[in-house]
Design goal:
This protein has 521 residues and is α+β, with helices and mostly antiparallel strands. The protein has 3 domains: 91 residues, Arc Repressor Mutant, subunit A; 114 residues, Orthogonal Bundle (Arc Repressor Mutant, subunit A), CATH 1.10.10; 254 residues, Bira Bifunctional Protein, Domain 2 (BirA Bifunctional Protein, domain 2). Helix content is 37%, strand content 21%. Helix 1 crosses helix 11. The protein is flat, with a radius of gyration of 37 Å.
Length: 521
Protein backbone atom coordinates (compact mmCIF):
# COMPACT_ATOMS: atom_id res chain seq x y z
CA UNK A 1 0.00 0.00 0.00
CA UNK A 2 1.28 3.43 -0.94
CA UNK A 3 2.10 5.72 1.97
CA UNK A 4 2.32 9.53 2.15
CA UNK A 5 6.08 9.11 1.74
CA UNK A 6 5.53 7.33 -1.59
CA UNK A 7 3.25 10.13 -2.75
CA UNK A 8 5.90 12.64 -1.67
CA UNK A 9 8.49 10.70 -3.66
CA UNK A 10 6.19 10.67 -6.68
CA UNK A 11 5.77 14.43 -6.54
CA UNK A 12 9.55 14.92 -6.35
CA UNK A 13 10.30 12.91 -9.48
CA UNK A 14 11.98 14.62 -12.41
CA UNK A 15 10.34 14.08 -15.84
CA UNK A 16 13.35 11.92 -16.83
CA UNK A 17 12.79 9.73 -13.77
CA UNK A 18 9.12 9.41 -14.69
CA UNK A 19 10.04 8.28 -18.18
CA UNK A 20 12.36 5.58 -16.84
CA UNK A 21 9.83 4.25 -14.32
CA UNK A 22 7.01 4.24 -16.88
CA UNK A 23 8.99 1.64 -18.90
CA UNK A 24 8.55 -1.00 -16.18
CA UNK A 25 5.87 -3.47 -15.28
CA UNK A 26 6.01 -4.55 -11.64
CA UNK A 27 7.92 -7.78 -12.22
CA UNK A 28 10.12 -6.66 -15.11
CA UNK A 29 13.89 -6.44 -15.23
CA UNK A 30 14.96 -4.21 -18.10
CA UNK A 31 18.33 -3.62 -19.70
CA UNK A 32 19.63 -0.14 -20.33
CA UNK A 33 19.11 -0.73 -24.04
CA UNK A 34 15.46 -1.69 -23.47
CA UNK A 35 14.84 1.45 -21.42
CA UNK A 36 16.50 3.71 -24.01
CA UNK A 37 14.44 2.17 -26.82
CA UNK A 38 11.21 2.48 -24.84
CA UNK A 39 11.70 5.93 -23.34
CA UNK A 40 13.63 7.65 -26.14
CA UNK A 41 16.33 8.72 -23.69
CA UNK A 42 19.97 8.72 -24.76
CA UNK A 43 22.65 7.00 -22.70
CA UNK A 44 23.79 10.09 -20.78
CA UNK A 45 20.26 11.09 -19.72
CA UNK A 46 19.45 7.50 -18.73
CA UNK A 47 22.59 7.35 -16.58
CA UNK A 48 21.58 10.59 -14.90
CA UNK A 49 17.95 9.55 -14.27
CA UNK A 50 18.84 6.02 -13.10
CA UNK A 51 21.39 7.48 -10.69
CA UNK A 52 18.73 9.72 -9.16
CA UNK A 53 16.28 6.82 -8.84
CA UNK A 54 18.90 4.62 -7.19
CA UNK A 55 19.69 7.35 -4.64
CA UNK A 56 15.98 7.52 -3.79
CA UNK A 57 15.80 3.76 -3.35
CA UNK A 58 13.35 3.20 -6.22
CA UNK A 59 15.64 1.42 -8.69
CA UNK A 60 18.41 -1.17 -8.33
CA UNK A 61 21.06 -2.61 -10.64
CA UNK A 62 20.32 -6.33 -10.96
CA UNK A 63 23.07 -7.33 -13.37
CA UNK A 64 25.65 -6.20 -15.90
CA UNK A 65 27.13 -7.56 -19.11
CA UNK A 66 30.29 -6.38 -20.83
CA UNK A 67 30.67 -6.50 -24.62
CA UNK A 68 34.05 -5.93 -26.26
CA UNK A 69 34.06 -3.94 -29.52
CA UNK A 70 36.77 -3.09 -32.01
CA UNK A 71 37.02 -0.15 -34.37
CA UNK A 72 39.75 1.19 -36.64
CA UNK A 73 42.10 3.87 -35.35
CA UNK A 74 43.18 6.74 -37.63
CA UNK A 75 46.11 4.57 -38.68
CA UNK A 76 43.74 1.68 -39.39
CA UNK A 77 41.45 3.90 -41.47
CA UNK A 78 44.48 4.99 -43.52
CA UNK A 79 45.48 1.35 -44.05
CA UNK A 80 41.94 0.52 -45.16
CA UNK A 81 42.18 3.20 -47.83
CA UNK A 82 45.79 2.63 -48.97
CA UNK A 83 46.71 -0.80 -47.65
CA UNK A 84 49.18 -1.67 -44.92
CA UNK A 85 52.84 -0.88 -45.66
CA UNK A 86 53.60 -4.62 -45.82
CA UNK A 87 50.83 -5.43 -48.35
CA UNK A 88 51.77 -2.40 -50.45
CA UNK A 89 55.38 -3.54 -50.60
CA UNK A 90 54.34 -7.14 -51.42
CA UNK A 91 51.95 -5.95 -54.16
CA UNK A 92 54.61 -3.71 -55.73
CA UNK A 93 57.18 -6.53 -55.74
CA UNK A 94 54.68 -8.90 -57.35
CA UNK A 95 54.31 -6.33 -60.12
CA UNK A 96 58.09 -6.70 -60.68
CA UNK A 97 58.85 -3.15 -59.54
CA UNK A 98 62.37 -2.43 -58.32
CA UNK A 99 62.95 -0.12 -55.37
CA UNK A 100 64.98 0.31 -52.20
CA UNK A 101 63.93 1.27 -48.68
CA UNK A 102 65.13 4.80 -49.43
CA UNK A 103 62.86 4.92 -52.50
CA UNK A 104 59.83 3.98 -50.37
CA UNK A 105 60.56 6.78 -47.91
CA UNK A 106 61.18 9.38 -50.63
CA UNK A 107 58.41 8.55 -53.11
CA UNK A 108 55.66 6.62 -51.33
CA UNK A 109 54.87 9.28 -48.75
CA UNK A 110 55.33 6.91 -45.82
CA UNK A 111 56.85 7.65 -42.42
CA UNK A 112 60.47 6.40 -42.15
CA UNK A 113 59.74 4.61 -38.87
CA UNK A 114 56.74 2.92 -40.46
CA UNK A 115 58.80 1.81 -43.47
CA UNK A 116 61.60 0.49 -41.26
CA UNK A 117 59.11 -1.47 -39.16
CA UNK A 118 57.35 -2.93 -42.22
CA UNK A 119 60.55 -3.99 -43.99
CA UNK A 120 61.89 -5.44 -40.76
CA UNK A 121 58.71 -7.46 -40.24
CA UNK A 122 58.78 -8.77 -43.85
CA UNK A 123 62.45 -9.76 -43.51
CA UNK A 124 61.85 -11.46 -40.15
CA UNK A 125 59.00 -13.48 -41.75
CA UNK A 126 61.28 -14.41 -44.66
CA UNK A 127 58.93 -12.75 -47.16
CA UNK A 128 61.42 -10.25 -48.61
CA UNK A 129 65.18 -9.95 -48.73
CA UNK A 130 67.55 -7.13 -49.62
CA UNK A 131 69.55 -7.87 -52.77
CA UNK A 132 72.57 -6.16 -54.26
CA UNK A 133 72.29 -2.37 -54.30
CA UNK A 134 69.68 -2.41 -51.56
CA UNK A 135 66.94 -3.61 -53.94
CA UNK A 136 64.06 -5.42 -52.23
CA UNK A 137 63.10 -8.86 -53.55
CA UNK A 138 60.32 -11.33 -52.72
CA UNK A 139 61.47 -14.64 -51.28
CA UNK A 140 59.82 -17.29 -53.53
CA UNK A 141 58.70 -19.55 -50.68
CA UNK A 142 57.78 -16.68 -48.34
CA UNK A 143 54.42 -16.94 -46.55
CA UNK A 144 52.47 -13.73 -47.06
CA UNK A 145 49.28 -15.09 -45.46
CA UNK A 146 49.60 -13.25 -42.08
CA UNK A 147 49.98 -9.89 -43.81
CA UNK A 148 47.08 -10.56 -46.20
CA UNK A 149 44.88 -11.72 -43.31
CA UNK A 150 45.54 -8.48 -41.44
CA UNK A 151 44.54 -6.46 -44.51
CA UNK A 152 41.40 -8.61 -44.85
CA UNK A 153 40.34 -7.90 -41.25
CA UNK A 154 40.99 -4.17 -41.75
CA UNK A 155 38.85 -4.16 -44.91
CA UNK A 156 35.99 -6.00 -43.17
CA UNK A 157 35.97 -3.66 -40.17
CA UNK A 158 35.08 -0.49 -42.02
CA UNK A 159 34.07 2.54 -39.94
CA UNK A 160 31.68 0.83 -37.53
CA UNK A 161 32.25 -0.82 -34.16
CA UNK A 162 32.10 -4.60 -34.35
CA UNK A 163 31.61 -6.92 -31.39
CA UNK A 164 34.68 -9.12 -31.10
CA UNK A 165 32.56 -12.14 -30.18
CA UNK A 166 30.97 -12.10 -33.66
CA UNK A 167 34.33 -12.67 -35.37
CA UNK A 168 36.14 -16.01 -35.87
CA UNK A 169 38.86 -16.79 -33.35
CA UNK A 170 41.73 -16.36 -35.84
CA UNK A 171 40.53 -12.86 -36.74
CA UNK A 172 40.10 -11.95 -33.08
CA UNK A 173 43.73 -12.96 -32.59
CA UNK A 174 44.80 -10.63 -35.42
CA UNK A 175 42.94 -7.72 -33.81
CA UNK A 176 44.39 -8.42 -30.36
CA UNK A 177 47.89 -8.42 -31.85
CA UNK A 178 47.41 -5.04 -33.56
CA UNK A 179 45.34 -2.93 -31.21
CA UNK A 180 45.93 0.28 -29.35
CA UNK A 181 43.81 0.89 -26.28
CA UNK A 182 43.04 4.54 -26.89
CA UNK A 183 44.06 7.77 -28.58
CA UNK A 184 45.90 8.29 -31.85
CA UNK A 185 48.60 5.68 -31.41
CA UNK A 186 50.09 3.60 -34.20
CA UNK A 187 47.83 0.69 -33.32
CA UNK A 188 45.52 -0.36 -36.14
CA UNK A 189 42.52 -1.30 -34.01
CA UNK A 190 41.06 0.25 -30.90
CA UNK A 191 39.34 -2.11 -28.48
CA UNK A 192 36.66 -0.76 -26.15
CA UNK A 193 34.34 -2.32 -23.63
CA UNK A 194 30.70 -1.36 -23.38
CA UNK A 195 28.67 -2.21 -20.29
CA UNK A 196 24.96 -2.97 -20.48
CA UNK A 197 23.27 -2.80 -17.09
CA UNK A 198 20.02 -4.43 -16.06
CA UNK A 199 17.64 -2.59 -13.74
CA UNK A 200 14.77 -3.69 -11.55
CA UNK A 201 12.31 -1.86 -9.33
CA UNK A 202 12.78 -2.04 -5.58
CA UNK A 203 9.78 -2.63 -3.25
CA UNK A 204 9.32 1.14 -2.88
CA UNK A 205 9.86 1.54 -6.60
CA UNK A 206 7.00 -0.83 -7.37
CA UNK A 207 4.66 1.15 -5.14
CA UNK A 208 5.65 4.46 -6.74
CA UNK A 209 5.36 2.81 -10.16
CA UNK A 210 1.78 1.82 -9.32
CA UNK A 211 0.97 5.44 -8.51
CA UNK A 212 2.52 6.49 -11.82
CA UNK A 213 0.35 3.98 -13.69
CA UNK A 214 -2.73 5.32 -11.94
CA UNK A 215 -1.77 8.87 -12.83
CA UNK A 216 -1.30 7.96 -16.51
CA UNK A 217 1.23 8.82 -19.14
CA UNK A 218 4.11 11.09 -18.29
CA UNK A 219 3.35 14.71 -19.02
CA UNK A 220 5.85 17.49 -19.42
CA UNK A 221 6.28 19.51 -16.23
CA UNK A 222 7.03 23.18 -15.95
CA UNK A 223 9.85 24.17 -13.67
CA UNK A 224 9.04 27.91 -13.49
CA UNK A 225 6.09 30.23 -13.81
CA UNK A 226 6.80 32.67 -16.65
CA UNK A 227 5.20 36.03 -17.54
CA UNK A 228 3.90 34.48 -20.78
CA UNK A 229 2.01 31.79 -18.83
CA UNK A 230 0.35 34.48 -16.69
CA UNK A 231 -0.61 36.62 -19.69
CA UNK A 232 -2.00 33.75 -21.73
CA UNK A 233 -3.47 31.77 -18.83
CA UNK A 234 -1.66 28.61 -19.92
CA UNK A 235 -0.46 28.03 -16.37
CA UNK A 236 -3.89 26.57 -15.58
CA UNK A 237 -3.15 23.53 -17.77
CA UNK A 238 0.43 23.06 -16.63
CA UNK A 239 1.76 20.66 -14.05
CA UNK A 240 4.50 22.32 -12.04
CA UNK A 241 7.43 20.42 -10.69
CA UNK A 242 7.58 20.35 -6.89
CA UNK A 243 10.41 22.24 -5.22
CA UNK A 244 12.77 20.34 -2.93
CA UNK A 245 13.88 22.84 -0.32
CA UNK A 246 16.03 20.18 1.38
CA UNK A 247 18.57 20.22 -1.46
CA UNK A 248 21.90 21.95 -0.85
CA UNK A 249 22.33 25.19 -2.77
CA UNK A 250 24.85 25.18 -5.64
CA UNK A 251 28.44 25.70 -4.58
CA UNK A 252 29.67 29.23 -5.12
CA UNK A 253 33.39 29.39 -5.87
CA UNK A 254 34.81 32.76 -4.91
CA UNK A 255 37.78 34.24 -6.71
CA UNK A 256 41.27 33.92 -5.25
CA UNK A 257 44.85 34.47 -6.26
CA UNK A 258 46.71 31.76 -8.10
CA UNK A 259 48.71 29.80 -5.46
CA UNK A 260 52.02 30.73 -7.07
CA UNK A 261 51.14 34.44 -7.16
CA UNK A 262 50.12 34.10 -3.54
CA UNK A 263 53.53 32.55 -2.80
CA UNK A 264 55.38 35.37 -4.59
CA UNK A 265 53.46 37.95 -2.55
CA UNK A 266 54.23 35.94 0.59
CA UNK A 267 57.97 36.13 -0.22
CA UNK A 268 57.75 39.85 -0.89
CA UNK A 269 56.03 40.57 2.43
CA UNK A 270 58.55 38.40 4.28
CA UNK A 271 61.47 40.45 2.97
CA UNK A 272 59.74 43.74 3.62
CA UNK A 273 58.99 42.51 7.14
CA UNK A 274 62.71 41.84 7.65
CA UNK A 275 63.54 45.44 6.71
CA UNK A 276 64.60 44.93 3.08
CA UNK A 277 63.88 47.48 0.35
CA UNK A 278 62.65 46.25 -3.02
CA UNK A 279 64.77 46.86 -6.12
CA UNK A 280 63.59 46.56 -9.73
CA UNK A 281 65.13 46.16 -13.17
CA UNK A 282 64.12 45.54 -16.81
CA UNK A 283 63.32 42.11 -18.27
CA UNK A 284 65.24 43.03 -21.45
CA UNK A 285 68.78 43.78 -20.35
CA UNK A 286 72.09 44.36 -22.09
CA UNK A 287 75.06 42.09 -21.54
CA UNK A 288 76.85 44.84 -19.63
CA UNK A 289 74.55 44.79 -16.59
CA UNK A 290 73.63 41.11 -16.89
CA UNK A 291 77.22 39.82 -17.15
CA UNK A 292 80.03 42.36 -17.68
CA UNK A 293 79.34 44.40 -14.54
CA UNK A 294 79.38 41.08 -12.65
CA UNK A 295 82.95 40.35 -13.78
CA UNK A 296 81.81 37.56 -16.09
CA UNK A 297 84.35 37.43 -18.95
CA UNK A 298 83.08 37.90 -22.48
CA UNK A 299 84.42 34.47 -23.45
CA UNK A 300 82.32 32.77 -20.71
CA UNK A 301 80.28 29.83 -22.17
CA UNK A 302 77.06 31.11 -20.57
CA UNK A 303 77.05 33.93 -23.11
CA UNK A 304 76.33 31.75 -26.14
CA UNK A 305 72.89 31.06 -27.61
CA UNK A 306 72.58 27.77 -25.70
CA UNK A 307 72.24 29.57 -22.37
CA UNK A 308 70.72 33.01 -22.99
CA UNK A 309 68.01 34.35 -25.29
CA UNK A 310 69.10 37.19 -27.56
CA UNK A 311 66.76 39.96 -28.70
CA UNK A 312 66.52 40.18 -32.48
CA UNK A 313 65.22 43.73 -32.92
CA UNK A 314 66.69 46.00 -31.65
CA UNK A 315 69.78 43.91 -31.14
CA UNK A 316 71.72 46.38 -28.99
CA UNK A 317 71.20 49.19 -26.50
CA UNK A 318 72.27 52.71 -27.51
CA UNK A 319 74.91 53.29 -24.84
CA UNK A 320 76.57 52.05 -21.67
CA UNK A 321 76.26 54.33 -18.64
CA UNK A 322 79.51 56.06 -17.67
CA UNK A 323 81.79 56.05 -15.78
CA UNK A 324 80.77 52.41 -15.20
CA UNK A 325 81.52 51.29 -18.76
CA UNK A 326 85.17 52.38 -18.57
CA UNK A 327 85.67 51.11 -15.01
CA UNK A 328 84.23 47.67 -15.78
CA UNK A 329 86.26 47.45 -19.02
CA UNK A 330 89.42 48.20 -17.02
CA UNK A 331 88.55 45.58 -14.39
CA UNK A 332 88.21 42.97 -17.13
CA UNK A 333 91.38 43.99 -18.93
CA UNK A 334 93.89 44.33 -16.06
CA UNK A 335 91.89 44.71 -12.84
CA UNK A 336 91.75 48.52 -12.95
CA UNK A 337 91.75 49.95 -9.41
CA UNK A 338 90.45 46.74 -7.79
CA UNK A 339 93.82 45.21 -6.93
CA UNK A 340 93.14 42.33 -9.34
CA UNK A 341 94.95 41.30 -12.50
CA UNK A 342 91.62 41.01 -14.35
CA UNK A 343 90.87 38.49 -17.10
CA UNK A 344 93.69 39.74 -19.38
CA UNK A 345 91.76 40.30 -22.61
CA UNK A 346 90.64 43.29 -24.71
CA UNK A 347 87.15 44.22 -23.49
CA UNK A 348 84.63 44.77 -26.33
CA UNK A 349 82.26 47.62 -25.38
CA UNK A 350 80.05 47.05 -28.42
CA UNK A 351 79.47 43.45 -27.41
CA UNK A 352 78.44 44.67 -23.97
CA UNK A 353 75.53 46.54 -25.61
CA UNK A 354 73.89 43.37 -26.99
CA UNK A 355 70.34 42.94 -25.70
CA UNK A 356 69.19 39.69 -24.08
CA UNK A 357 66.36 38.49 -21.88
CA UNK A 358 67.60 38.87 -18.32
CA UNK A 359 69.31 35.58 -17.42
CA UNK A 360 69.90 36.26 -13.71
CA UNK A 361 68.46 38.48 -11.03
CA UNK A 362 71.99 39.58 -10.11
CA UNK A 363 71.68 42.11 -12.95
CA UNK A 364 69.22 44.01 -10.75
CA UNK A 365 71.74 44.00 -7.90
CA UNK A 366 74.44 45.39 -10.22
CA UNK A 367 72.23 48.31 -11.24
CA UNK A 368 71.35 48.95 -7.59
CA UNK A 369 75.02 49.04 -6.55
CA UNK A 370 75.68 51.58 -9.30
CA UNK A 371 72.77 53.79 -8.19
CA UNK A 372 74.33 54.89 -4.88
CA UNK A 373 72.66 52.54 -2.37
CA UNK A 374 72.33 53.18 1.36
CA UNK A 375 75.26 51.97 3.48
CA UNK A 376 74.45 49.96 5.50
CA UNK A 377 71.58 48.69 3.35
CA UNK A 378 69.43 45.64 2.60
CA UNK A 379 67.79 45.13 -0.80
CA UNK A 380 65.80 42.37 -2.51
CA UNK A 381 64.16 41.74 -5.86
CA UNK A 382 61.75 39.16 -7.21
CA UNK A 383 63.14 38.87 -10.72
CA UNK A 384 61.82 36.82 -13.61
CA UNK A 385 64.74 35.33 -15.54
CA UNK A 386 65.13 33.45 -18.81
CA UNK A 387 67.69 30.76 -19.54
CA UNK A 388 67.57 27.87 -21.99
CA UNK A 389 66.84 24.56 -20.28
CA UNK A 390 65.16 21.26 -21.08
CA UNK A 391 61.76 21.22 -19.40
CA UNK A 392 61.19 18.52 -16.79
CA UNK A 393 59.81 18.19 -13.24
CA UNK A 394 62.41 20.60 -11.78
CA UNK A 395 63.54 22.75 -14.76
CA UNK A 396 61.89 25.40 -16.93
CA UNK A 397 63.18 27.95 -19.50
CA UNK A 398 61.86 30.88 -17.47
CA UNK A 399 61.87 31.14 -13.70
CA UNK A 400 61.69 33.55 -10.78
CA UNK A 401 64.68 34.33 -8.57
CA UNK A 402 64.66 36.12 -5.26
CA UNK A 403 67.75 38.26 -5.54
CA UNK A 404 69.23 40.14 -2.63
CA UNK A 405 72.21 42.09 -1.37
CA UNK A 406 73.27 43.32 2.05
CA UNK A 407 76.11 45.84 2.24
CA UNK A 408 77.91 47.40 5.20
CA UNK A 409 81.19 47.48 7.10
CA UNK A 410 80.46 44.52 9.38
CA UNK A 411 79.02 42.15 6.73
CA UNK A 412 80.77 38.78 6.34
CA UNK A 413 80.27 35.24 5.00
CA UNK A 414 78.88 33.96 8.31
CA UNK A 415 76.06 36.50 8.08
CA UNK A 416 75.30 35.21 4.57
CA UNK A 417 74.97 31.58 5.74
CA UNK A 418 72.64 32.69 8.54
CA UNK A 419 70.43 34.55 6.07
CA UNK A 420 70.31 31.59 3.65
CA UNK A 421 69.20 29.24 6.43
CA UNK A 422 66.56 31.76 7.49
CA UNK A 423 65.25 31.98 3.91
CA UNK A 424 65.08 28.20 3.60
CA UNK A 425 63.09 27.92 6.83
CA UNK A 426 60.80 30.91 6.43
CA UNK A 427 60.20 30.90 2.69
CA UNK A 428 60.80 27.39 1.35
CA UNK A 429 59.42 25.86 4.58
CA UNK A 430 62.24 23.30 4.41
CA UNK A 431 63.61 21.50 7.46
CA UNK A 432 66.80 20.01 5.95
CA UNK A 433 69.59 22.14 4.41
CA UNK A 434 72.98 21.70 2.82
CA UNK A 435 75.58 24.36 2.02
CA UNK A 436 77.85 23.23 -0.81
CA UNK A 437 80.96 25.01 -2.13
CA UNK A 438 80.43 26.66 -5.52
CA UNK A 439 82.06 28.90 -8.09
CA UNK A 440 80.67 32.09 -9.63
CA UNK A 441 82.76 34.71 -11.49
CA UNK A 442 81.34 37.52 -9.35
CA UNK A 443 81.55 36.10 -5.78
CA UNK A 444 84.34 34.72 -3.61
CA UNK A 445 83.82 32.70 -1.47
CA UNK A 446 80.71 31.17 -3.06
CA UNK A 447 78.11 28.70 -1.85
CA UNK A 448 75.01 26.87 -3.10
CA UNK A 449 71.95 26.28 -0.92
CA UNK A 450 70.28 22.87 -1.25
CA UNK A 451 67.04 21.84 0.47
CA UNK A 452 65.36 18.44 0.67
CA UNK A 453 62.01 18.05 -1.10
CA UNK A 454 59.85 15.35 0.52
CA UNK A 455 59.28 13.63 -2.85
CA UNK A 456 62.10 14.72 -5.19
CA UNK A 457 65.00 14.64 -2.75
CA UNK A 458 67.76 17.26 -2.64
CA UNK A 459 67.25 20.30 -4.88
CA UNK A 460 69.53 23.27 -5.50
CA UNK A 461 67.78 26.56 -4.70
CA UNK A 462 70.53 28.84 -5.97
CA UNK A 463 73.90 30.43 -5.38
CA UNK A 464 75.28 33.06 -3.05
CA UNK A 465 78.54 34.59 -1.94
CA UNK A 466 80.59 37.69 -1.17
CA UNK A 467 80.77 40.07 -4.13
CA UNK A 468 84.35 40.38 -5.42
CA UNK A 469 86.03 43.83 -5.44
CA UNK A 470 86.07 43.52 -9.27
CA UNK A 471 82.26 43.86 -9.06
CA UNK A 472 81.76 46.40 -6.28
CA UNK A 473 84.65 48.86 -6.80
CA UNK A 474 83.87 49.73 -10.49
CA UNK A 475 80.26 50.38 -9.43
CA UNK A 476 81.34 52.81 -6.70
CA UNK A 477 80.88 50.61 -3.61
CA UNK A 478 83.81 50.11 -1.21
CA UNK A 479 82.24 48.06 1.60
CA UNK A 480 81.65 44.27 1.81
CA UNK A 481 78.53 43.05 -0.02
CA UNK A 482 76.87 39.66 0.36
CA UNK A 483 74.55 38.54 -2.44
CA UNK A 484 72.28 35.63 -3.31
CA UNK A 485 70.04 34.53 -6.13
CA UNK A 486 67.69 31.73 -5.13
CA UNK A 487 65.20 29.92 -7.36
CA UNK A 488 61.72 30.82 -6.17
CA UNK A 489 60.05 28.20 -8.35
CA UNK A 490 61.75 25.36 -6.47
CA UNK A 491 61.11 27.06 -3.15
CA UNK A 492 57.44 27.20 -4.13
CA UNK A 493 57.45 23.48 -4.95
CA UNK A 494 58.45 22.75 -1.35
CA UNK A 495 56.17 25.37 0.20
CA UNK A 496 53.13 24.34 -1.89
CA UNK A 497 53.83 20.61 -1.68
CA UNK A 498 53.93 19.89 -5.43
CA UNK A 499 56.18 17.51 -7.38
CA UNK A 500 56.30 19.14 -10.85
CA UNK A 501 57.52 22.68 -11.52
CA UNK A 502 55.02 22.99 -14.39
CA UNK A 503 52.16 22.79 -11.88
CA UNK A 504 53.15 26.25 -10.64
CA UNK A 505 51.48 27.68 -13.75
CA UNK A 506 48.52 25.28 -13.70
CA UNK A 507 45.12 26.44 -14.96
CA UNK A 508 43.38 23.58 -13.15
CA UNK A 509 40.63 25.25 -11.13
CA UNK A 510 40.67 22.64 -8.38
CA UNK A 511 44.42 23.16 -7.92
CA UNK A 512 43.98 26.94 -7.84
CA UNK A 513 41.11 26.78 -5.32
CA UNK A 514 42.62 24.25 -2.92
CA UNK A 515 46.42 24.56 -2.97
CA UNK A 516 47.82 26.62 -0.12
CA UNK A 517 51.27 27.42 1.26
CA UNK A 518 52.17 24.84 3.88
CA UNK A 519 52.91 27.14 6.78
CA UNK A 520 53.32 24.47 9.44
CA UNK A 521 56.22 22.27 8.39
Amino acid sequence: MATPDHIKLLDSLHPLENKVLFCFSQDDTLSASDIMNSSGLDESRLDMASGWLQSKGLLAVTGETVTTYEILTETGAEYKEKGTPETRIIAALREKKQFTVKDIIQFWGMDPTEVSSAVGSLKASNVVRIAQGGILELVPAGDTTPFELLQEVIDETGGASIALSTLPAHKQAVIQANFHKRGKGKGIFRITEKKNRFYGLTADGKKVFKLIRERGAVSEEASALTPEMLKQGTWKNKKFRAYNIALNPPRQSIGRKHPYKEFLDFVKYKFIGMGFEEMRGPLVENEFWDMDALFMPQFHPARNIHDVYFVREPGSSKKIEEPFGKRVAAAHKDGGKTGSTGWRYAFDLERAKRLILRSQGTAVSARTLASGPKIPGKYFSIARCFRYDAVDATHAPDFYQVEGIVLGEGIDFKALLGLLKLFGQEIAKASEFQFRPAYFPFTEPSVELHVKHPELGWMELGGAGMFRPEVTVPLGVNVPVIAWGLGLDRMAMVALGIQDIRDLFSRDLDFIRTKKIQLNK
